[in-house]
Specification:
Blueprint: H1 2-43, E1 50-57, E2 60-66, E3 68-69, E4 81-82, H2 84-91, E5 99-105, E6 111-112, H3 118-127, E7 131-134, E8 141-144
Parallel strand pairs: 5-7
Antiparallel strand pairs: 1-2, 1-5, 3-4, 5-6, 7-8
The structure holds zinc ion (ZN).
């Protein structure tokens, strides 16, 4: 009887740890997937620095965009842009638990540093974002806002 109880306990522990591992792997896969989508958006950008952003909650994408010109570069030499983060803030509210993914590509299609600028960090924070994953040349990084 005592022995039986112990076996059950260890079986349950094994089950729990297996699930924990799977969840972690799934999260890593999802982060990579959303960053790939952000990279795809970045590749569509008309700007010199090509940046894309994705707002996602779990498996659901809530908004995605590249950075864009505010005006036509042929009309206004200043070439002001909406940053990709600003674009997604214009398109969606940030619900609790949603994560922002920001990516930049160079002309060779290689991911580059895409850490949100201080203006976007402030805007994202006041919009309710808590976590931002961004690309760097050495791999993705997490930025915790607050
Ligand atoms: Zn910015």
């Amino acid at each position: 009887m005592f022995n039986n109880g112990r076996t059950m306990h260890s079986a349950r522990t094994r089950l729990l740890s297996k699930r924990a591992v799977r969840t972690k792997t799934e999260t890593v896969d999802m982060t990579a997937g959303w960053l790939r989508l952000a990279l795809k958006q970045a590749a569509r950008s008309p700007c010199r620095y090509r940046v894309g952003a994705v707002l996602a909650k779990g498996r659901r994408v809530l908004a995605q965009s590249s950075n864009r010109y505010r005006n036509h570069p042929g009309v206004d030499f200043r070439n002001a842009t909406f940053h990709a983060e600003e674009m997604i803030l214009r398109r969606a509210r940030i619900p609790k638990g949603a994560i922002v993914y920001v990516a930049r590509v160079n002309n060779a299609g290689v991911p580059m540093l895409a850490r949100p600028c201080s203006r976007c960090q402030r805007a994202l924070t006041s919009g309710g974002a808590k976590r931002v994953f961004y690309t760097t040349a050495a791999g993705p990084r997490l930025l915790v806002l607050g």
